[in-house]
Amino acid sequence: MKMFKNFINDNLYTSLTNWLTNVKIDYMSNYMDKSDTNLHAVVYVSSSTIDYSRSEMESVLNDVRTYNRTHNITGLLIFGGGNMLRMMEGNKETVQAQFYLIQEDNQHDGTIKLLDKPIKHRYFEDYPMAFKALNSQKLKHFDDFKEPESKEFFDECLATDDSVMKLVKDFLKHNT
What domains can be seen in the chain, in order of their start residue? Predict the structure, then answer.
């Protein structure tokens, strides 16, 4: 769009830019709605084979979040004492394929799928991968639920009485 700025007046440029932005937003919301008709969750636990430094964890989180945004996956990763629970929400084939890749990843040991089922809604729709750090001062910096508002959101999720959140609560209970 910037290449046309020299050929049209500022008002037209602004109008066209706003219109294109709205078209993009409409397209993305339609895409998200269509992909959510096959909404699915996979929850697994594993042990990390790596004692992540702060910079290594930052790199992993950035890479996974970028991948998840591209593939319309949302969810949660809880990391504590070398153990992790991850919940992935998205298209059934996409989250199942991602789980398969994780099983083959040598950074995980003892990977166990706890849940693989359709879900009615996303819990973490605003998070390409929410992160909750347990018992780790070096990773607390990355915890998405340390501020009062986000902590309240997380507590509301935990108050939900369904199989996905029951697994999360159980993991928290046994790893804090």
Answer: 2-35 (no CATH), 38-175 (3.30.70.100)
